Amino acid sequence: MKIVRLEDARHLPLWRRPTSLLFVMAMAMPVAFATWSALLNNFVIEVAAFDGSDIGWLHTVREIPGFFAIGVIALIMFIREQVLGLVALAMLGAATAVTAQFPSMAGILTVTMLSSIGFHYYETVNQSLQLQWIEKKRAPQTLGWLISAGAGATIVVYVLIVLSWDLLGLTYSIVYWLSGGFTALVALLCLFAYPQFESPNPQLKTFVLRRRYWLYYALQFMSGARRQIFVVFAAFMMVEQFGLEVDEVTKLFLLTLVINMIAAPFLGKLVAVFGERRALVFEYTGLCLIFFAYGGIYYFGWGVLLATFLYVANHIFFSLALAIKTYFQKIADPQDIAPTAAVAFTINHIAAVFLPALLGYIWLQSPGTVFLMAAGMAIISLLLSLLIPRHPAPGHETVFQFRLLAAAE
Question: What is the CATH number of the domain that holds 60?
Answer without folding.
Answer: 1.20.1250.20
